[in-house]
Amino acid sequence: MAEFVTVDRNDGIAVLRIARPPLNLIDLQTAWEIAAAAEEIGADPGVRAVVVYGDARVFSAGDEMAELARWTPEQAEAVVKDLQNALGCLSRLPQPTVAAISGYALGAGLELALGADRRIIGDNVKLGLPQIKAGLIPVSGIRRLSLLIGPSKAKDLVYTGRFVDPKEAEAIGLVDEVVAPDDVFEAALRWARQFTAAPTMALAAAKRVFEAGTHGHDRARTEWAGLFGTEDQQVGTRSYLVDGPGTVGFTGG
């Protein structure tokens, strides 16, 4: 039973919540619980899309520095791979994912959100990777941040550890949508609902191609060919041919 993470499912949408008040700081246990919840969600064929959320006050204010301050070099070496994998777990989910961000997404919290397919924030949110100010670096987010906003902007954020406001975050592509603070969760649900009748195997294939990065062109060939013979491909292509796009409800098979 998880202590700091909950998962609710409703109408094909899973809501993964970080629940470690007051700031939803991510310690090792919370990271493990997030990763375990994501693995469970990813294996559930009934889940078509995923919303990741903290609460109305804060998504996650970052790393649990009290824990990091106690670790020896040997302890850090022993857990770094698991921690890195946990913070990148959203990128491995086969379903479309959206991070609904209120208040703050800092450090490990922002690293986690970077693995989502979409980030929606309130217009009062602060984002950043301030680990450099603790003599550390982001363990999971540097490569993904660089791919998202470009190396130059990513270096600025990582090297300075400065906070980014909503206007800049949207301008540089760090987030995808800025809404009123009270609308963050509902906006994320609206985006997720687009996929409740979508072709899940094709979406999962597309996500794997994106995740392949520089090898995506080669990966696309394998994924494209592998979709032939699936129920969704057969029904979808026939429906598209007869009635045009968007006229069929996919079963996920």
Automatic annotation (TrEMBL):
GO molecular function, one term: isomerase activity
Presence of the UniProt keyword ATP-binding in the record: no
Gene Ontology BP terms: fatty acid beta-oxidation
Keyword set, alphabetical order: Isomerase, Lipid metabolism, Lyase
Stored Gene3D superfamilies: 2-enoyl-CoA Hydratase, Chain A, domain 1 (3.90.226.10)
Database matches in InterPro entries: ClpP/crotonase-like_dom_sf, Enoyl-CoA_hydra/iso
Annotated family: Belongs to the enoyl-CoA hydratase/isomerase family.
PANTHER family xref list: (7AS)-7A-METHYL-1,5-DIOXO-2,3,5,6,7,7A-HEXAHYDRO-1H-INDENE-CARBOXYL-COA HYDROLASE (PTHR11941:SF169), ENOYL-COA HYDRATASE-RELATED (PTHR11941)
Name this protein carries in UniProt: Enoyl-CoA hydratase/isomerase family protein
Originating organism: Nocardia huaxiensis
